[in-house]
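Researcher: Good morning. I'm working through a list of sequences from a screen, and I'd like to move beyond sequence-only analysis. For each chain I'm collecting a predicted structure so we can compare shapes side by side. This is the next one on the list. No need for commentary yet; just the structure.
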Amino acid sequence: MSDRVATILLLAFVAAPLAAQDLAPVRAVEAQPLKAHVARLAEALEFAGQPLSAAEKARLDAARKDLDPERAALEIQAVLAPHVLLAVEINPESRVKVGRGQAAAELVQDGWRSFLVRVHNMAGVTASLRASSPQAAPVYRGSTGASEPAVSVEDWQVQERWMDLSLYTRPPLQDRLSGGELEYAVVQIYSRDAGGRDGTFLVDIGQGTQDLGFRNQASVLFRCLPSLPVTLEVFDFDGSPTTAGFEIRDATGRVYPTPAKRLAPDFFFHPQIYRENGESVQLAPGRYQVVFGRGPEYLRKRQELVVHADDGPQSASFQLERWIHPAAEGWYSGDHHVHGGGCAHYESPTAGVRPEDMFRHQLGEDLNVACVLSWGPCWYFQKQFFEGTVHALSTADNLMRYDVEVSGFPSQHAGHLCLLRLEEDDYPETERIEDWPSWDLPILQWGKAQGGVVGFSHSGWGLEVGTDQLPNYEMPPFNGIGANEYVVDVTHDAVDFLSTVDTPHVWELNVWYHTLNCGYRTRISGETDFPCIYGERVGLGRIYTQLPGGLDFDAFCDALRDGRSYVGDGQSHLLDFTLEGGGARAALGVDGSEMRLAAAGKVTARVRAAARLDEDPQAFAWLRESAYWQKPYWHVERARIGATRTVPVEVVVNGQAVARQVLPADGAIHELAFEVPIERSSWVALRILPSSHTNPVWVVVDEQPVRASRRSAQWLLDAVEVCWNSKRGNTRPAERAAMREAYDHAAASYRRILAESKVD
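Model: Good morning. Structure tokens for this chain:
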């Protein structure tokens, strides 16, 4: 039966209920199918967390052994009758009507209760029962992408929609009627509220099966017992109070509070909630398993929580445990691409969520910096939070700032843009987002002119290739919303960074490697694009910036722009990458990340590396066996070497891996050193692919520019025209002349670099 069967149960107390004889025991039932069904039903009630009593089980066991069919069938019905909330009758014409059973209409706030639904199926149908209830309707409307959506779920409707319904259809039960004359369903009901609550329900088994006179509709008045507040005591690794994420489940795996009735700050698309030390969660009496943690730098721990019925308000203590602490090493985490509206967020009863909600999630995932980007969906509501500075909620350890993603704007076909550290969030001489330019370069130049740090979002979209080689020379279609126009804009010194981690690594890194090979010095950053590409949590994609002076938003943006950083999933780390040799030394983001050598030779690369893998190599075997273009795209488990607990750390020179060491993924920091041959001016980076990747250090030999690959220059030259043909049709005719001029400049730049390059 479908989940909607749940409505059946609530159809009691109608103005004209079924007559008493309609609710009487069903006679002349074939006993053997009923006995087999009831055995499965008892097992299902065990799994559902509300087993029959020992006495009831004994009576059912005796009835199953009774050789008198009628007596056995009547005894089974008598045993189950006190648990039947609703009795459904399907007449020979397949019309459905509902009556009230004997079960007490009692629920518990923030908890589930299971009931039986008796189905007298005179038509022998095998369809799914369907049910609906206005009280079980969503308390939100999901995003439609509208920039200025009308309210579609009003506050009074949120209050009315107090219930969640679920039919237990897991084995040994099924989701369709068997066709037998008598069977039972297990329906589970959740109440968000305490006190008396009335629900109206409609039940049928398909179009045209509703009975006349509203007899397939009914209401039931429930008494909902109050749940108990459980205060969460949350302590960080050092004993200080903090905020963490909590995933609370019962023995059947159900999540609390139920996601279907959540509004901010708890998101309906998450299993977890976030609570600060001293805050509480409402729970019904029972046993729960709690998985808790605080982002990828912490261990995910498990703890049982027992809520006792008679103890009044209760508390539970949770001690967090780190496996690494980059901020203590001067490396601060950031996710420059999260949203408060659009995608998985709702757009009604409010247009997305507010800063305090986003900040709670940032704290719960231990993000030092979060950039909340307003964009097309809910733009006119969300942009009110832009202030041109860090938000007032920010703390010394956690900074939040509102900025802009150019998405849902006329230029989005050319590639979505992240504009950080803006002073002004409205493009000059525009009143609506429809007035913005229809290609990227003028927007990037405008952002940089006001001191912003600008780059492309989810870079891989539109740059899809069929190989896993890096670099590769396949020509992508340039038909997406990633770093497509980057091949043009980079030649105008208009791009500070490309975003990585939230699209397949080959597609992201390939275009970057090619431009690095031509001497361009764009950096990479890490992002999640929450809750669009990844809705599980903020900070799944991260940048770690080295900030010697401590956490500061301007310093963070400067480090992002200057490449004093590495990116990744937070499950591996590449700290303090340096190069030294020939009397010179270079570090990320310092003095242009550059060292100079008089002649070719060898340099030493040093790094403090760490990673942590699950001790069981089979725990994520499914992930290692999946294609790199399947989510999650970046994950340390993809880097695991065979069945060992190790990952490779590679030195990359001009896109090619030239050295490799095996790193124990035990969570400890290990100091590594590599001897790296430098034959000509080059860029050098480190990676644990696809989990983390540093920005480059440049080695300038004999004052020559980096011209590492003729094939890269030719690929980029060809890409300019492919991109032009893909993007020109969606660019306004009035802007195409300037666009063509910019593309011609890019083509000329690559022709010059191609002529200057001597190495294929």
